[in-house]
Amino acid sequence: MGDVNPDALRGHMDALLLSVLEDEPLHGYAIIEALTARSGGALTVPTGTVYPALRRLERVGYLASEWATVGGRKRRTYRLTSSGTRQLAGERSAWREFTGVIGSVLEPDARRPEAAG
Amino acid sequence: MGDVNPDALRGHMDALLLSVLEDEPLHGYAIIEALTARSGGALTVPTGTVYPALRRLERVGYLASEWATVGGRKRRTYRLTSSGTRQLAGERSAWREFTGVIGSVLEPDARRPEAAG
DNA sequence: GCCTACATATAGAGAGCCTACATGTAGACT
DNA sequence: AGTCTACATGTAGGCTCTCTATATGTAGGC
Q1: What is the mean pLDDT of each run of 10 residues along chain B (117 residues)?
Q2: Interface touch B5/A39, C-beta < 8 Å
Q3: A92 with B99: Cβ contact below 8 A
Q4: Strand order in the sheet with A26-27
Q5: Which among A44, A52, A42, A46 has a CA at the least distance from the CA of A14?
Q6: Is the minimum CB–CB distance between A56 and chain B shorter than 8 Å?
Q7: In Å, how far are A10, A95, B52 from A7, measured between CA atoms?
Q8: Does residue A42 approach strand C to less than 7 Å at its CB?
Q9: Is any Cβ of chain A less than 8 angstroms from the Cβ of B24?
């Protein structure tokens, strides 16, 4: 229904961006659309968030970009580097740990007795 | 193993704090220990995070506090208000939506075909 | 006296996500 | 020709929250 709380996105944006670039290179605008599509409309990330984040990820070497002109419009297309691929794997693993940890605090009753450990 | 990335905690701290106060009132120091215990040691939230957060949650009405002296030491004990109880329910629901949304972007292949919608 | 555990609090730093704004092309409609 | 929407990228500044570092004080063991 409502959008995801922006504060909650903190620290997960990198994973989201790397993830949508896993299958194919995309330019910024298409990345935003892909995020919305994959999330079933729950994520509408503003350009002021995405573009700086992409540049940051390129700066640290997880992404590489090149300009292209399609239909008279200029696009900067980003792709995962091998470093970015490794980072994405780490982000996924961190995500699973994160949800496990927070979940265990938020809903301790949901833990199966035999699953302790 | 490693601690949870601090940035990832953003926007979830409120839920964590309200959650550990659900069963019984606790003072700040005990809240920190409860978070560590419930998370199996994965969460070690610093006092500089917890104390200001507790005061903020009291300011907005989710918590109420009173001073007590136990063994010569002063404690400020926090408890959930009825508003805080409602808020906790909202936080839990938001958490489930959040994990669903991020998960659907991070691991779209994990989605069962019959679970679409 | 010194050290550790218990217990609370504040100041300032740091990071990143957001709003708002700026810039420009292409195509449809009037 | 003028206007509007969709496409497409970018920056500046603000905001909020978490963290580090520091300060204060009691109780108990050595």
Answers
A1: 82 98 97 96 96 98 97 96 98 96 87 45
A2: no
A3: no
A4: A26-27, A73-80, A63-70
A5: A52
A6: no
A7: 5, 16, 17
A8: no
A9: no
